[in-house]
Amino acid sequence: MNELNGVLNSCCNSLKQQNQSSENQLSRSLNQLPVAIIGAGPVGLAAAAHLVNQGQHFIVLESGPSVGSNILEWGHVRLFSPWQYNIDKVAKKLLENSGWNEPSANELPIGKEFVECYLEPLSKLPAIQNNLFLNSKVVSISKKGLDKMKNLGREETSFIIYVEQQGMTKRIEAKAVIDATGTWSHPNPVNADNIWTSSELELNKHIYYGIPDMKGRQRKRYEGKRIAVVGGGHSAINTILELSQLRNNIEIYWIMRKNSVKEAYGGEENDALKGRGELGSRIHQLVDAGLVKVLTPFRVYQLNQNNGRIDLKGEYKGNDFTLCGIDEIITNTGSRPDFSFLREIRLSVDTATESVAALSPLIDPNFHSCGTVRPHGEEVLRQPEKNFYIVGVKSYGRAPTFLMATGYEQVRSVVSYLSGDIEASKKVELELPETGVCSITLVQKNTTSSSCCCS
User: Fold this and answer.
1) How far apart, in whole angstroms, are the C-alpha atoms of residue 247 and residue 289?
2) Which of 71, 111, 318, 398 is most buried, by the most CB atoms less than 10 A from its CB?
3) Distance CA 389, CA 178 (A)
4) What percent of the chain has pLDDT over 70?
5) Residue 432: its pLDDT value, please?
6) What's the pLDDT tens digit per position in 61-80?
C-alpha cells in the first residue's frame, strides 16, 4: 500500500511539474505577443508612446487613411483647449528627442493643425511608424478558440482581432487590447427620443452630423438658407458661430432640449479655459442681438419633407409645435460608442451613460454639471475581460465632458499596469481647468439644493 502511495505521489508530482512547465511556457508565449491599440487618434497614439517608453511590443490599428482621421473631419474648428493640455508628456519627450519644435503652449490650434503639428510627427517616429497600420478596420475581437461563455483558461488565453485590410480579413493575436476608437463616427439622431427614424434617414441629404466647413467647401450649401442647428453643447455653439459669419440672408434656428438658453453659456469669463469661456460669451452676444432664434426646450419627434423643405414637428415648451420651411439641419446632439465589434468580449458598461461602468458615477451628466473629473486610471477602467481596456472619449460613453488630458492619464496608468509597474499605475495625478460651472441639483420632496461636484 505504501509502495502504491509512493507511486501515486510520484505521478502527481510529475504531473504538477508538467502542468507548471506548460503554464510557464504559455505565459512566456503570451508575453511575446503585442499589445493591440485600436484607433490612431490622440489617446491611441499616446498609448503607443507610453508602450515605446516601457519597451513593450505593440501594434496600432487605424480604420482611416491617416492618423487623426476623425479630427480631420472637423479640421477647420478651433479647439477650446490650448496646446499645453493637448500634448501627452511622454509623447512630448519622444518628439523632443527627434528635434520636434513644440507649438506655443497657450495657442489654440484648429483640428487640422493639431493633426499636422502633433499627431503626424508622433506617428512618424520610427518606433511608432513601424507598428502603425492604416486602413485597418477592426470588425471583431474574441478570445482565441473561446466563445464569450467559456471560462476555462480564459485569462491565460490571447485575444484574436479580426481586421479588414484591402478587402481581406486577417487574424491578429495580442496579449492585451486598448480600445481608443472614440465615438465621433456614431452620432446621435435629431429625434429627441434618440431613435433613428426612417424619415430622418430619408432626409440625410439635408442633414449634416457634425460641424460643417462653412468657410470652405460647404459654404454654398448654407448661404441664403433657413437652417436649424440641433444641440446645446460646444459643437452646436461652434456651428452657430461659423454660420453667423456667412451673413448672407441666412436664418439660424437654435433648437435645444435645455430648460433655458443660459444653461448653454457655461462659465463664460469664470471658465479656466479661456477659449471655452469665450465660446459661451460669443454665443450669448449673438442671442442677445437677435441674430439667432432660440427654441428651447424644443423636442423634435418627426421630420417631414414639404415642398422641398423640412418641417420639424415636436413639443415646444410642453405644447405641440411645428417649425416649418427649414432648408438644412445641422445636428450636434452628441455621439455614442460602438460596441458591435466587442460582442465576444466581457464588458462592464453602465446602462445609462454607456461609459465604463466604474467611471459612470464620476461623469454622469444627470448629477454632474461640470467637466472636471477626479483622476482615474487602470483600476477604474479595468474590464471583466483581463487586459482589455476602453480608454479616451469612448470610456465616457455618451457623456460629453471628456478632455484629452484625461485620456493621456488613463493610458499612462493602463500601460504602467500592463508593463508590471503596479505602483505607478495606482499613482494617478491629473490637473484639469475648472469650467466655472460646478453644481449638483438634487430634487427631494419638491426641494432643490446645490453643491460642488468637483472637489
Assistant:
1) 14
2) 71
3) 5
4) 87
5) 66
6) 999 999 999 999 999 998 98
Residue predicted with more confidence, 37 or 8: 37
pTM metric for this prediction: 0.85
Whether omega before 82 lies within 30 degrees of 0, making that bond cis, reads no
Q: Which residues contact 67 (CB under 8 A, 6 or more apart)?
A: 40, 41, 45, 115, 119, 120, 122, 123, 132, 134
Q: What is the pLDDT of residues 230-284, one digit of tens each?
A: 999 889 999 999 898 887 789 999 999 999 999 888 887 777 777 788 888 999 9
**Using H for helix, E for strand and C for coil, what is the string for the chain?**
CHHHHHHHHHHHHHHHHHHHHHHHHHHHHHHCCCEEEECCCHHHHHHHHHHHHCCCCEEEECCCCCCCHHHHCCCCCECCCCHHHCCCHHHHHHHHHCCCCCCCCCCCCEHHHHHHHHHHHHHCCHHHHCCEECCCEEEEEEECCECCCCCCCHHHCCEEEEEEECCEEEEEEECEEEECCCCCCCECCCCCCCCCCHHHHHCHHHEEECCCCCCCCCHHHHCCCEEEEECCCHHHHHHHHHHHCCCCCCEEEEECCCCCHHHHCCCHHHCCCHHHHHHHHHHHHHHHCCCCEEECCEEEEEEEEECCEEEEEEEECCEEEEEEEECEEEECCCECCCCHHHCCCCCCECCCCCCEHHHHHHHCCCCCCCCCCCCCCHHHHECCCCCEEECHHHHHCCCCCCCHHHHHHHHHHHHHHHCCCHHHHHCCCCCCCCCCCCCEEEEECCEEEEECCCC
pLDDT digits (tens, 9 = 90+) for 282-334: 999 989 999 999 999 999 999 999 999 999 999 999 999 999 999 999 999 99
Task: Return the exposure string of 299-309: e unless at least 16 CB atoms fall within 10 Å of the residue's CB, then b.
Answer: bbeebeeeeee
Cα radius of gyration rounded to whole Å, the chain: 25
Q: Cell triple for residue 368? A: 454632474
| Residue linked to cell 484574436 | 160
pLDDT(10) > 70: no
Per-residue confidence (pLDDT) for residue 371, from 0 to 100: 53
CA distance 427 to 39: 26
pLDDT tier at 446, thresholds 50, 70, 90: very low
| φ/ψ of residue 82, rounded to 5 | -75, 170
d(CA 44, CA 119): 10
CA–CA separation, 211 vs 240, rounded Å? Answer: 9
Mean local confidence (pLDDT), 167-195: 96
